[in-house]
Specification:
By secondary structure, this protein is of the alpha/beta class. The protein has 15 helices and 11 strands. The longest helix has 21 residues, at about 355-375. It is globular, with a radius of gyration of 21 Å. The mean pLDDT is about 95.
Length: about 425
């Protein structure tokens, strides 16, 4: 595999310049100025083992494969509100105001383009900075024109797009999503099952721009987009950033399973007060998130194969909008487990986190790894990036992988493959 070197500037385009998007952008500027560190980012701080374990060779990932340098990244995006990135970041109240003030000139210079938005897909949003066009195909063409203009204006060599917008209402895959032809016909006819996120996806993939979906929307997770990504040689990854409570589940559940400990019930509830929490306060939008969250345990624990341990598992998920918390999410988990001789035990978790602080490094890694994949000639669903996603895409007929440790093995072996290093199988005493 021949991987092209990262030259020139990389443009990262973000639909949704809210809490996550602005935290990500401000963070990159702060890191480039030496004001902070990229904690949580594998492309910047992660190490990888090469060769036999006896050799103790664990360089940084960025020294093994050609990750695009942060200093040569530029940003653009769309939002339903017309606040520039500095104003939006101040309103989001994720980052310290003094930090934002020190980055004010750079952040103020980034102004959102008008968003593709339809209130019927996110009823709690009331933005007015919105495109108008007769058809969804017209909206897609408008996006493609803006993308091309952004690339020229900023002298970008390559682009990548990461959805950081809100969760849309729950939509099931249907006939309109099956082929490129049916999707394009649906765009021309304003089909109701083509949400705004999928219009962005179509525009990006049609232009050959790598795309990642950070929300549980269908977006790129339909056969038509997967086929288009293969035709245009475009890597894609979805869906829903793995942060907070689900991150904990994909760490804990594999541990309980590998020790053959049973689970009777797993109750999860969250309080969250940012824009995402407000959108999820609507039942139709919450269902998209609920489906994304509920599938995690079933796919990890495989109750159909481990009936004695997990067939009676009761799994409940709740998200409660609580404005005083802002971006400070609190997730409570109660896990009823049983062990030797069926004796009951419990695990309690109280995870207080900043949702956007956990998500920002995922935006960075997805953008830079997708750019790497594009330069390596990879296209279609990038299953190795499931590590970052709550409801990961998988090839048709294959069960998605949720176990974070198995996801890590797949991610690291893909990096070794791109770098032409020996894959690690853990066979033999030297491994």
């Amino acid at each position: 595999m021949e991987t092209k070197k990262p030259t020139g500037k990389l443009g990262i385009l973000i639909p949704g310049l809210g809490a996550v998007g602005t935290t990500f952008i401000a963070g990159v500027y702060a890191i480039n100025k030496g004001m902070s560190r990229p904690v949580g980012s594998l492309t910047q701080m992660g190490r990888i083992r090469l060769g036999k374990r006896t050799s103790i060779n664990k360089p940084y990932i960025k020294d093994v494969v050609d990750i695009h340098p942060l200093e040569d990244v530029v940003f653009g995006g769309w939002d339903v509100f017309d606040d520039n990135v500095y104003e939006a970041a101040v309103k989001a109240q994720v980052l310290d105001k003094n930090l934002l003030d020190s980055l004010k000139p750079e952040l103020e210079a980034i102004k959102p383009m008008k968003a593709v938005f339809d209130k019927s897909y996110a009823k709690r949003l009331n933005g007015t900075h919105v495109k108008e066009a007769p058809t969804k195909m017209d909206l897609a063409n408008s996006l493609m024109q803006e993308i091309t203009e952004f690339k020229d204006k900023n002298n970008c060599d390559r682009l990548v797009m990461v959805w950081c917008g809100s969760t849309e209402i729950y939509i099931e895959e249907g006939p309109v999503h099956q082929t490129i032809e049916s999707l394009e016909e649906g765009l021309r006819n304003n089909h109701k099952d083509i949400p705004p996120s999928m219009i962005y996806t179509y525009a990006a993939v049609k232009l050959g721009i790598p795309y990642a979906n950070g929300a549980p929307n269908l977006s790129c997770d339909v056969p038509a987009i997967v086929e288009l990504s293969r035709q245009t040689g475009t890597p894609i990854a979805g869906k829903d950033f793995k942060t907070g409570q689900t991150l904990m589940k994909t760490i804990l559940a594999p541990g309980l399973k590998c020790r053959a400990l049973g689970i009777n019930g797993w109750f999860s509830t969250n309080i969250l007060g940012n824009r995402d929490g407000e959108v999820l306060d609507d039942p139709d939008n919450f269902k998209s998130k609920e489906v994304s969250k509920l599938g995690v345990l079933e796919d990890i624990l495989e109750p159909e194969l481990n009936q004695e341990l997990y067939s009676d598992l009761y799994h409940k998920v709740r998200i409660n909008y609580y404005p005083p918390r802002g971006d400070n999410k609190e997730g409570w988990d109660n896990i009823d487990i049983f062990g030797w001789l069926d004796y009951p035990m419990q695990i309690k978790i109280d995870f207080l986190c900043k949702d956007s602080i956990l998500a920002a490094p995922l935006v960075l890694d997805l953008a830079l790894f997708l750019d790497l994949a594009k330069r390596a000639g990879m296209s279609g669903v990038q299953e190795w990036l499931s590590f970052y996603l709550k409801s990961p895409q998988a090839p048709t007929g294959v069960r998605p992988m949720h176990d974070i440790f198995k996801q890590q093995i797949k991610l690291e072996n893909t990096i070794r493959y791109i770098a032409r290093e020996e894959l690690i199988t853990h066979l033999g005493q030297d491994y």
